[in-house]
Amino acid sequence: MPSEALKAGQRLILLIGASGLLGHNVLRELLKRGFRVRAIVRSEGSIKEAAIPEGKEALLEVCVGSILDFKLLAQLSVGCDAAINCAGMTDMSLLDLDDYIPVNRDLPVALCSIMEKSGSMKTLVDVSSANTIGNGSALCPAREDKPYRKPYSQSLYAQSKFLSEQDLTQWAKEHPDKRVIIVNPGYIIGGFDFKPSSGKLLLAGCRKPLMAAPGGGKSFVAASDAAAAIVNALDRGRSGERYLLTSDNLTFKDLYTIQARLLVYRQLYFKLPRALCLLVGALGSGLRKLGIKTMVSLANVKIMCEEEFYDSTKATLELGLIHSPIEDSINAFWKTML
């Protein structure tokens, strides 16, 4: 592991994907700790001022450009101690694997090539997905060694992330003088979800007298907790390793029950029959074969019917992942929306 004697203020971190939910939280965490940050965004104003801690503005350098402009990334990497890649193509309506590859695989691979030629950049922390790891159940949540399998292996998004992990893991083995740490967040909820992104799941059930959803669930994690663990990974993560960043294993019914209690409204929850969900998914897949974009597909619906439950003991012990109550994450999201 690198020496921690170098103070945060003497270290410059290249941050990719700073304008998203996780990116805003990672940026805030870096600045809070006194790191200097060079962030690349696609347009002015992509980073919201609310995410920048008071008095830390001078630590942030914002550069406008494409994250797929690898020559620009190489220029921006000069003088950087490490890079954190939070960028990801997550649009589930895309029809082809090639739509995901440039951002989800080519970008992190390019960052490794840049790091190989860099005299200063020694570490890459790359954000992948929990869906590259086979899920567990409530009684036996999965750890990092659970093999990648269906239905996640049928998801184009998960496929692109899995391919990226394979390339990064191999690269780390071949370059022992550099460090590549992969983090695998579960379903992220929290503040600074301005678009919103994953917060759409909360919006979908908010104040509806009747809420119907599949019988599955997800392993939720607070955006701020995931961000803190990612920053910790700069020094504490082991090269070539994957770390699940998850916390609360909840069914959709659990999630919406908690939200209704927090926001004080009544809601009757109805679990959709699996057969009905699969029928809708099959219809969505049929539309996709006709070239019609929709996030509804058989693979995506099967995932929604699964208990995507994980065990983050490894990240807790090695990266200091903390586990804030899910209530805090939901409240943080709605604070952003107000």
Uncertain runs are 1-5
Shape: globular
Query: Which whole number gives the mean pLDDT?
Result: 95
Q: What would you call the quaternary organization?
A: single chain
Give me the CATH architecture of the domain at 8-195 and 220-247 and 309-324, please: 3-Layer(aba) Sandwich
Task: Characterize the biggest β-sheet.
Answer: 7 strands, parallel
Determine the structural class based on helices, strands and strand pairing.
alpha/beta
How many helices? 11
Question: Please, what is the CATH homologous superfamily of the domain at 8-195 and 220-247 and 309-324?
Answer: NAD(P)-binding Rossmann-like Domain
Q: Bin the strand percentage.
A: 15-25%
CATH class of the domain at 8-195 and 220-247 and 309-324: Alpha Beta
Structural summary, described in words:
- The protein is an alpha/beta fold and 338 residues long.
- It has a domain of 232 residues: Rossmann fold.
- It is 38% helix and 17% strand.
- The protein is built from 11 helices and 12 strands.
- The strands form 3 sheets. A 7-stranded parallel β-sheet has the order 3-2-1-4-5-6-10, with helices on both faces.
- Helix 1 packs across helix 6, helix 3 packs parallel to helix 4 and helix 8 runs antiparallel to helix 9.
- The radius of gyration is 20 Å and the shape is globular.
